[in-house]
Amino acid sequence: MNLSDAHCHLQDVRFGGDLDEVLKKCRHAGIRRWMVNATREADWARVAALGVSEPGVRCSFGLHPWWQEERCPHWQESLRDILIRHPEAAIGEVGLDRWIPGHDLEDQRAVLAFHLQLSRELDRPVSLHCLRAWPELAACLKQHRPSRRGFLLHSCAAPSAMLPAFAEAGAYFSFSPAFLHPRKAKVREAFRQVPLDRLLIESDAPDMAPPAGLELEAVPGKEGLALNHPVNLMLSLRALAEDRGVEAAVLAERLEENAERLFGWKS
Ligand SMILES: [Zn+2]
User: Fold this and answer.
1) Share of residues in the chain with pLDDT > 90 (%)
2) Cβ atoms within 10 A of the Cβ of 233, count?
């Protein structure tokens, strides 16, 4: 089986020095590509370096709403510049978040608008984060259209009634292992209506861990806290295959086609 992780953060320092071991486990399970999303200017170089050193790592550059306050005054030139230097790279992670305490939605909107403008200008797909701001995100996408190549609503927990309009606007939707929590049953249910040609799977590792006891592997974190291991992507695949009543291997082929279409991967 060949699988791609549509959204993760392998550059995260919380993986410590274990990344070789982590990727070995993933490759053994059949995962061969990772869309590694930067979250702030400080990790762009690390993401770019992984794209060179690790076969299968693809890069995405952007400013996550949790880290936007620490950006430099010239971040826009820097972002355009790194994207031009990496013609295969996507844009993100970026988005809107009304869940995080002290959020500044106006500032998030301005940062997102610039990322969407770059998406059009450079014709790149975008990886979007959204927590408790779905109507605001829909409005932003209407006002600042991304590239026609499409965009990813990563770990998408949008209300099911909004999914058709997002799909119409060019969305792909990715399912993370955290959606196996019983409290996320509604999200899992909503994924049943995602068109098959817009479906993707992600780990979001080292975040968004599956429920304790279900994980295939965990990465040891601080204070005994277990972090999400990217091999848990397999749980996302199994859950979607079960919900759609298809063989995991058959679904995997469709998901690969979707990832290649959205991200412009040749192989
Ligand atoms: Zn993420």
Assistant:
1) 87
2) 29
